[in-house]
Amino acid sequence: MVVGSYHCLGLLDGEPEVPATVSPVNMSLVRYSFAQLDSRSGYASGIRDPYWQQRMLGITSAGVTDLINDVIVDVARECRTQGEPAGTGEIAEAIRCAHDLARLRGLPNPGRREALEALNTVFSYGSVTGRGRIVAQALQKVMVGDVTGELPRTHPVPVLEQQVRAKLAELGLPSKERTATITKQIDPFKGGKDFERHLVLAQLAVLDVPYERDRVTGMNRGFESRSYSATCTFDSNTAATLGMRAAWGSTWPKPPKTMLAADLAHCGRRPSQHDRRAPQRPQASGLTMRFVRPPN
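RESULT FIELD:
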């Protein structure tokens, strides 16, 4: 088992030494995915390619060879899924290239470095664009992984998070960490579910909850279309942010209403010298919110 220093104390035998004075702290259990544990996600204590590292634990020298072969086959399968040709010829050549690199470097078996260099040479022809991007997307699934941790059933879940999850599931939007990313075409002026989806996305944007990842608006005869496509993902960041926003209201949809009311009250009164360093709520970045009235 590989753990960070924070968790080592819980794995030691015997009673741990407790300091004489302990400052009170607040703790939360948050689901984390392999993508978030990867150091390239911005996690300072992360590692490169967590799924690869997990598969490497506890295997023998012969198992390393089998793992290298499996990784190359899995990458080829992902490339074919995305429409890129990758057959048995490319697979055999990439495996040969990885083993040749290991022999040239005096290694008993090829490792992560040799596998990546072989895939870059054989599959993407040394290019980081075009076909190289397809291979990079395949490596994201094969090397980084898409596994998400689970919390115990007895772990308390804030009421706000429960209600938001239920509302998203009712509207056919991602509501769980393991749910795939969904792109929905939304026309608020049609009313019904479309207007409710538009309203929920706007409310989550007010709270600066990371949920809507991308929004694309088309053009119709030179004018901006009323409808748009929204790409949404529910991950551990979404759940953690909802837990923090419970301070603005314990039930849905009180938090966005309270936050908007606070912003309007702050903007409506005359600023004074005491407001120069007043903290301001961070604005939702990269999102354009359009509030529309429901059709009659």
